[in-house]
Specification:
With about 625 residues, the chain is mainly α. It contains 25 helices and four strands. It has four domains: about 325 residues, no CATH class; about 35 residues, no CATH class; about 120 residues, no CATH class; about 100 residues. Helix 1 packs antiparallel against helix 24, helix 6 packs across helix 8 and helix 21 packs across helix 23. This is Zn-dependent protease with chaperone function.
Length: about 625
């Protein structure tokens, strides 16, 4: 499956459905206008001129549009803090970073591994503790303010591979940009429903007492209520259609992402087998139904937010037959059931054919290339490598990044040089920005950071992100300024230093302003030609020891991006940071299919010499984050 092509196709379908949503609002306005004209308008009478109804109809239209718009805006603003607000609205509780519960610990490990493999920050993690159904959702405006929420049923019923498949499905929603659309659909539906609620109130007002014009008010209230509920009905239909198209993409993306079908298919089969299925008990489940992994309850097919279970399973396993569910159910009831029915005993992915503490550079080709699916299953080396990176981190550091202040100190330690000549100046920078107490904490972490495998530096920053988001905004800004000063203390900026500072700045900015997160771009690749040439030049130069090798790598990228064109090579500018940032911002405005070509070109340049360095892998991770793309498979 071509991730970007499928993504573009489904997004195009979703845009058409959103246009239908807008047309539904226009129809609502027209219907209300018609009732207002009938009840309050000027009509022709014998021998009398007809006054214009335009001012009345204009006022009616403005009032309805304002009512829907303001109500929708109110609901969207109530979710302005992103995924956290949506999770808490359904009664979910945050999973503590230092939890000792083995099920919750496994959940955190799986989510952290998927985040490392995808090249996105670790999201906030929530649990719906009272829900026995197997379900989950991801919410937020972008990867930087995302929250992943799972039910207790996921923890009790699913094996590690199945849980990983569900989490990968939810991460696909994050990477596909579905979350912003989901929140806006929630707001628009709420706005339409408010019309019906207002109509009920108006009916009561018009029917109470003998006010003059009460009949007209009553009719307008009835129209608001009827049209509001009809509009809500069709809005739900459109919302369900949008959700079904997005769910199909998320299933396919999760398979490409994990490189195996058994996990997500196994989770879907268990939903079909167990009595609870994916049903939720929470009162406002319909509001988040379009975000969920499975159906929130039993709905008419028209309102189904997901394709039928068997259809989803057969899309993953074409030869699957319904009678196999009965055999699977019997095997799960057997007292000697396999480990797939006892998720607590599952081994972590890092132990499945991967030696803990393995040298990080050997993992790089797999991280970039992923695994191949054979017969529907795979060892998923991408996630094994991510798990090995996670395990290779010293426990002192993984524990420290769970709390805001100690996470801040670890990030400063990551940016501190091991060169003795630079350390006095860098200590002054830290002390001036945060004081002597923080400086002492940073120095205490320096030894652990020095032992950190190079490939684990940015993944450690990803693990620290949930804690860093909790810092006051002013302290976040001070951290970013201090990081810039630390990396420039020697008068130059190498790739490792740049990648850490750029990644944190990008993600913290988006987390602090979730509703301003970038949307899908519309530009085609020729419009960003110079930007891509510059980025490829910097990537090729950063991964090669001499200009001739860099030029060869750059030419590989150019032939993929602009085949047949004669483009002159020019070395990157000495002060490359600012031009690179402008180029990345420009490329972020590309269409998804154009971004695919950008990533392919960069991977071509990186792999041109047959060696993938840590610096190249880290730079690719930062570029993908800047373009809001997953790391290439």
């Amino acid at each position: 499956m071509d991730f970007f092509a499928q993504q573009a196709r489904v997004r195009g379908s979703s845009r058409r459905l959103v246009v239908l949503f807008v047309l539904a609002v226009v129809a609502i306005v027209a219907a209300i206008d018609a009732v207002v004209w009938l009840t309050m308008g000027h009509h022709a009478a014998d021998g009398e001129p007809v006054a214009s109804n335009l001012p009345l109809l204009f006022a009616s239209s403005a009032a309805v549009i304002a009512g829907i718009g303001l109500s929708s805006l109110f609901r969207i603003m109530s979710l302005s803090s992103g995924g956290k607000a949506v999770a808490e609205s359904v009664g979910a509780v945050p999973v503590p970073p230092d939890t000792s519960d083995p099920q919750l610990r496994r959940l955190r490990n799986v989510i952290e591994e998927v985040a490392i493999a995808a090249g996105v920050p670790v999201p906030d993690i929530y649990l719906m503790a009272d829900e026995a159904g197997i379900n989950a959702f991801a919410a937020g405006y972008s990867a930087s303010d995302a929250a992943v929420c799972v039910t207790r049923g996921c923890l009790d019923r699913l094996s590690r591979d199945e849980l990983q498949g569900v989490i990968a499905h939810e991460f696909s929603h994050v990477l596909n940009g579905d979350m912003r659309l989901n929140i806006r659909l929630m707001g628009l539906l709420f706005g339409i429903l408010v019309l019906a609620i207002v109509g009920r109130r108006v009916i009561w007002f018009g029917g109470s007492g003998n006010r003059r014009g009460g009949g007209q008010v009553w009719l307008i209230g009835l129209a608001l209520m009827v049209v509001g509920y009809i509009g809500y009905f069709f809005g739900r239909l459109i919302q369900a259609a949008v959700a079904r198209s997005r769910e199909s993409l998320a299933d396919a993306s999760a398979v490409q992402f994990t490189r195996q079908t058994d996990g997500i298919a196994g989770a879907l089969k268990k939903i079909a087998i167990f009595a609870e299925g994916s049903t939720l008990q929470v009162a406002n489940k319909q509001e988040v139904a379009h975000m969920l992994f499975g159906e929130a309850g039993t709905f008419n097919a028209l309102f189904a937010t997901h394709p039928p279970l068997l259809q989803r399973i057969r899309a993953l396993e074409p030869g699957f037959r319904e009678e196999e569910l009965a055999r699977l159910a019997a095997s799960l009831q057997h007292p000697t059931a396999t480990a797939s029915a006892t998720p607590i005993a599952d081994k972590p992915a890092a132990t499945q054919g991967v030696v803990p503490g393995m040298a990080m550079p050997s993992a790089l080709p797999a991280v970039l290339a992923g695994g191949a699916v054979v017969g529907g299953t795979a060892s998923a080396p991408r996630f094994q490598r991510a798990a090995s990176v996670r395990q290779a981190m010293p426990s002192a550091l993984t524990g420290a990044v769970q709390q805001p202040e100690s996470a801040l100190a670890v990030m400063l330690a990551l940016a501190t040089s091991t060169e003795a000549a630079l350390q006095p100046a860098q200590r002054r920078i830290v002390a001036d920005a945060f004081g002597d107490d923080v400086l002492q904490t940073v120095q205490a972490f320096n030894g652990e950071v020095a032992q950190l495998p190079p490939m684990a530096r940015l993944p450690l920053a990803s693990l620290a992100f949930p804690a860093l988001k909790q810092l006051p905004e002013g302290r976040q800004q001070t951290l970013l300024v201090a990081l810039d000063a630390l990396v420039k203390a020697d008068g130059r900026v190498d790739l490792n230093e740049y990648c850490l500072a750029r990644l944190l700045r990008l993600q913290l900015k988006e987390a602090s302003q979730p509703r301003r997160a970038p949307v899908d771009g519309l530009k085609k690749l020729p419009a960003c030609r110079d930007s891509l040439i510059l980025v490829c030049t910097i990537v090729a130069s950063g991964g090669c020891s001499d200009e001739a090798s860099a030029r060869r790598a750059w030419l590989v990228a150019m032939q993929q991006a602009f085949p047949g064109e004669a483009i002159a090579w020019a070395p990157p500018p000495a002060a490359w940071q600012a031009p690179l940032e402008r180029a990345l911002d420009d490329l972020d405005g590309l269409l998804p299919v154009a971004k695919e070509l950008v990533i392919q070109s960069l991977v071509g340049a990186i792999q041109a010499d047959g060696v993938v360095s840590v610096e190249e892998a880290e730079l690719l991770r930062v570029i993908c984050a800047s373009l809001h793309c997953p790391l290439p498979m």
